Amino acid sequence: MNKPLAGAFLAALLLGAGAAPVTAAESAGNASAVPAAAAAPAVDSPTAVPGAAAAAPKAKAVTFAGTVALSNCSGSVVRSPDAAPTDPALVLSNGHCLESGFPGPGEVVVDQPSSRTFTLLNASGSGIGTVKASKVAYGTMTDTDLSLYELTSTYQQIEDGYGIRALELETAHPTAGTAITVASGYWKRTYSCDIDGFVHQLKEGRWTWKDSVRYTPECQTIGGTSGSPVIDDATGKVVAVNNTGNESGQECTDNNPCEVDENGEVTVREGINYAQQTYTMVPCIGAASKIDLDREGCALPKP
């Protein structure tokens, strides 16, 4: 997993050494350098030429708007397509970024009180305010690696106070070849690459994740990028959450996940990084943006 970074001292150390900022999580390995957040469509108004084919619309520009910095990881303010402006806002990150430590295999955290704070970023990556959690609505490292915090602020209050709209969660399984951006609020850095494919089982130490996203080699995420939203460049929607990478070519050890296919064959890809899909969360978000693991279609692990 992308190691969660140990505060500003390590950040200063890395920056002083000329290291490029990236994600934070638990095992250093995921770092994408590309602004992640709600993106405004690029405006291009070419002069119309009679008989010429219309220019293809440009992809939305990905920015940092809506991303957040945790004390040790990255994250983002997210919403389901059906969220109401008056719903309490949700922050997405990794399960291994929880302040209580890594959940063990089979462990699921729900409705745990939390007063954690997050630095909210604008499009350019500047911190523009602090939002606060009321609880950990959901967290696990079983089958996936995610956490959802419920905030004390509503989506409308965040938009009115800071001009920031939450990033929308994609409802469908992403496809290979999709151009993506990993936007790290911790490092204020983005990484651009494509979805290379999907992994039947991704094993790292004691944990196993299912149907993980594999990046093409360009996304060299690092510690601190853990929890960063993975954004579809064409739609601006969140399709995954950045979480790990194979650092030294070891097989299935901490910080060195391995791929296991349907036949049990193991593949190690040194230097390749991964994310966990997020469309599976959407059916679990009910009225008032509350997590309801009993909703129809919700397949997230239960306590």
UniProtKB/TrEMBL annotation:
Keywords: Signal. Residues 1-24 form the signal peptide. The keyword Translocase does not apply. This is Trypsin-like peptidase domain-containing protein.
